[in-house]
Amino acid sequence: MSLPVPKQWEPLAAVPIVAGLWWLFAAAGGGWLFWALIPGVLMLAAGVGLLLWPGDLRLTEFMALGALLALIVAVPVTLFGAFVEGLICALLAAGAFLVSGRVALAQEQAVSGVPPPDATIAVAAKAALDEALLAYFVGTADLPSGERAQRVCARAPLMEKAMQDAGFAEQPELLHKTPPAPERVYAQQARLYGYAYERLSWDSGFVADARIPGADAWMEHRDNRQVTAWMLRHPGPPRPWLVCVHGYRMGHAWMDLGLFPPRWLHEQLGVNLLMPTLPLHGSRRMGWRSGDGFLDGDPFDLIFAETQAVWDLRRAIAYLRAQEESPRIGVLGYSLGGYNTAMLAQYETGLDFAIAGIPAVDLAGALWRHLQPWHRGYYAAQGLTLERYRNILRSVSPVARPPKLPRERLYLFAGVADRVVLPEQVAALSKHWDVPVQWYQGAHLTFRHEPLVRQHIEAAMQRAGWPVSAELILAR
Q1: For residue 317, how many C-alpha atoms fall within 13 Å in the half-sphere facing its CB?
Q2: What angle do CA 387, 402, 430 make, to 5 degrees?
Q3: Which one, of 350, 352, 284, lies nearest residue 312 by Cα?
Q4: Angle, vertex CA 456, rays to CA 262 and CA 265, nearest 5
Q5: What are 349-371's pLDDT values in tens digits?
Q6: CB-CB contact of 421 with 446 (8 Å)
Q7: What DSSP character marks residue 179?
Q8: How many angstroms separate the CA atoms of 215 and 219, rounded?
Q9: Which of 83 and 259 is assigned the larger pLDDT?
Q10: Three-state DSSP state, 195
């Protein structure tokens, strides 16, 4: 890896500064200021910060969020209000949006073996979308503060000792038990986006290991004990099953069926789909948002969340095998789902393939990267360093053990401009698996619109011998 040359001043900061000032002072009256205050302040503050203190990750993130909000507000202003002023507002916001993506990419270190992002407006815009998403994730994350932060730091050595004493750090397979198929599965007919599907539910059956501090508290999340899943199944003879693993803060049918479009996967390629919901997501959530407590809140609960995620996914696969004789099963996961697909590859045998898309690999490093400096400094002073946190999470790392699937059944794809899952993380999994990465010139949120991604997924099915439509694939 090579770091970019640092700058004392960032001249591109002039764009968000001018944009923020224009948004705040372009029009008089409280009505305009009501709509312009948040995007204007975000662009101006981030622009000034970028000028004076370049290098802080949050500057480009909140600049992108402010610019994106400004672009949304500018549409009705331009169409139904002052056209010229609205158009100028929109152009300045678009400029700030592109600057956030370009600067964010320019500040990132180059990774050996990863193609550099193209220096184009399209790639900068794709990176800026990721930056805005990160601003939402980081800005709304539940960070332990006050006495909660003290308890987290005090718990760190206890967690580390418990994981070592139980042997989980050196032998993660001791933590990940093989689950049986669910004894009773409830099915309910549903319809969405014009597609009929089944809403399945069953008891998770997961029990957190009592030797790990916090196990009792984890088991108190009652809604999390019931797994839900969406199933689309063709009538007639058996067909291959694609187990689809959603990303962070998803787990609702309207989200998951949009992420894994039935028109393409179910109708055109002709495969059956099973979409299990990850712990603490969808109907299993414990907060008001799907995913609350999985990657925020108590940082050590990630041990239980990931252990249960692997258990639940393997239990879903066991369910399919109990329904059919020798079913053909492949796994496809995106983002957090890619992480769990990589985890499955360590423990599940007999899969036709595992496709880890834009997969996070080092969750400890990713979470630490976006911690506020005050939190990082306090944690480190209390002995909770990144190295200790990584060691505690080692048993739920996708690079802790070699995969059980042969390398010809393992697939990776990722974006060279991804700001949520950095290319270096995917490169680390590529090295661990000894398989190449299908890189595309895009970011985290744009993978669904990248032709190379669909081709990669379809190629995995063809190489596995699935009877997908070859004519459809060759026509693309």
Answers
A1: 28
A2: 75
A3: 284
A4: 10
A5: 999 999 999 999 999 999 999 88
A6: no
A7: P
A8: 6
A9: 259
A10: strand
Count Cβ atoms below 10 Å from residue 91 Cβ, excluding itself.
14
Asked if 285 and 179 count as a contact pair (C-beta separation under 8 A), the reply is no
Question: Sign of the C-alpha dihedral, residues 134, 414, 406, 476?
Answer: positive
pLDDT above 70 for 157? yes
Cβ contact 264:277 at 8 Å: no
Residue 284, amino acid:
R
Residues 6+ apart with CB under 8 A from 137: 248, 370, 420
**Cα dihedral 98, 103, 104, 110 sign:** positive
Instruction: Check residue 6 and give its pLDDT.
Output: 63
Largest Cα span, the chain: 71
Pairing type for strands 241-245 and 272-276 reads parallel
Q: pLDDT digits over 34-58, tens only? A: 778 899 999 999 999 999 888 888 9
Are the C-beta atoms of 30 and 113 separated by less than 8 Å? no
Angle made by CA atoms 193, 341, 236, in degrees to the nearest 5? 50
Average pLDDT over residues 220-230: 97
Q: Where are the beta strands (DSSP E) in 246-383?
A: 272-276, 329-334, 353-357
Burial 54-87 (b: 16+ CB within 10 A, else e): beebbbbbbbbbbbbbbbebbeebbeeeeeebbe
How far apart CA 229 and CA 249 sit, in angstroms, is: 15
Q: Are strands 226-232 and 195-203 parallel, antiparallel or unpaired?
A: antiparallel
Name the percent of the chain lying above pLDDT 90.
80
Q: Give me the amino acid identity at 318.
A: A
pLDDT reading at 476 higher than 50: no
Sequence-ordered alpha helix ranges (H) in 53-113: 57-80, 83-107
